[in-house]
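input
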Amino acid sequence: MICVHVRVSGRVQGVFYRAFTKERSEEMGVKGWVRNLPGGGVEAVLEGERQKVGELLRLMKTGPSGSMVLGMELSELECKGYEDFEIRY
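output
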């Protein structure tokens, strides 16, 4: 198990980026949360098998149509045992 905090910059608000991330995470069994940041970015915590988290991160680099990811900052966290994946407001 691995847990990462990710900050995504670019055109990632108003393009269903959070919903895209939630749908993909649920398909892969990754837990955690995603939310918009003031100023236009998105922040997420992803927890799951290393391979699945890596796969989700690769998908998040592209994002849904209409998005344009310019950067991703990653840091590893201690796992907390999230039970699901949620969009936070």
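quick obs: The two ends are 26 Å apart (CA to CA).
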